[in-house]
Amino acid sequence: MRYLTSSFILMSVFCWFKTKAEFFTSIGQMTDLIFTEKDLVNSLKEYIKAEESKMSKIKRWAEKLEALTSTSTSDPEGYLGHPVNAYKLVKRMNTDWQELERIVLQDPADGFINNLTVQKQYFPSEEDEAGAAKALMRLQDTYKLDPDSISKGKLPGVKHSAFLTAEDCFDMGKIAYNDGDYYHTVLWMQQALKQIDEGEDTDISKSEVLDYLSYSVFQLGDLFRAIELTRRLIALDPTHERAGGNLHYFEALLEKEQHEGKVNKTAFEEPKTVSGIYERPPDYLPEREVYEALCRGEGVKMTNRRQKRLHCRYQDGNRNPRLLLAPIKEEDEWDSPHIVRHYDVLSHEEIETIKELAKPKLARASIINSVTGIQEPAMYRVSKSAWLEEEDSAVIVRVNQRIEDITGLTAKTAELLQIANYGVGGQYEPHFDFSRKNEPDAFKRLGTGNRLATYLNYMSDVPAGGATVFPDFGAAIWPKKGTAVFWYNLFRSGEGDYRTRHAACPVLVGSKWVANKWFHERGQEFIRPCGLTEVD
Q: 217, 419, 440, 531: which could form a disulfide with 358 (CB 3.0–4.6 Å)?
């Protein structure tokens, strides 16, 4: 009965999950997996207890019968000459052994298996595992973490210890390998090999690791090391089905190069290394280095001269009646484009209410396809989001009104309040909030014009990572729970301010919750009238 109850509870808890294979995109939803695992552990312990009780009964039977048969077999006729012994033998063979058979055939695992079967419907999938592994690799790259530090759980701001086994590192490498990412394959296979060499007890063999490692360094263009690693592999496993063929191919390729006089080069470009680590291959994002440096707090262009132009003030929304007695604390974060931070915008109670309202609605965050105008998920945006309406709660009404009062803009044409929760290594790579000229249909269905301004509420502190950065002018803004940042995406002329291209850095430690309010052009004509030039 207990198993049926726990299964029913679990189904109730998880009934709001609309999609599978999306756990890694939201820390908020991943927390439910913690309680699922706890329930499974309790169920497993009950199964072990039942199994131990069953074995204890069987053991007592065996010990009793062993002593009995030891006596009876030494003098069978004499033993059975006692009528009570004769009766008990018949009784045992007719009744007691059948009872023992019943006990042996009992399967205490049934309840646990039933519980596990129900819960497995909601388990993370292979896509989740791959997504979480790639998130670790993303953190590794962005924050320049070596595999050994990650494996030992040495991250800034952590409250709980964690480590990766050699098998975990091997699996990380395999995921990268299957994705054609030989750079990360090498890093994680080397870490797995290191931990095995240090004596870690594991079921992963060196030959398995060397198999992946040798081919991956070859793919990176390091032919000499590929030959060395393949020879090590053959020394460990002379019967390996691929190693011999690979070695023959590598050596033939090297001989060809030597014959052509390229003794120090292969047919491939020599791989660049830093401290023995291969150089990370370039990717599709042109400002990758600048963006990631800002995420680490490096390259921020906050000069003393600029700092002197930044001020703090009390802001009453142009003498808005609701702010006269309780003005908002406003701080300049950047001078041009002007970005401000507002303090104590959301209370802890409001934040918790908003999170609880959003959780059942969270779905994989999407981007607007610049060609089709249709929203779709993308790997450069790893989070889950939900849209909250004023009908959902009086808290949403109050928050929307407060944002309108602070900014002075009308929320009648604004988008709904969007709540986002970032998952493992959650991020949103550099992007514009407004639509560019080559995306004329991005907000056409709304009929409210372009995104004029962004109001970004931080609903959690983030121990490490998670900054909002602006690569164009070198600004980094760090999350502070209860605060919000505000900037205009468009000049007064309606032209886009391309300097506002920004990114949400990967969350290194913690869980990041934000609430976005995007104001649109329509309805703001007299609130923010056009300027005299294109860039006013």
A: 419
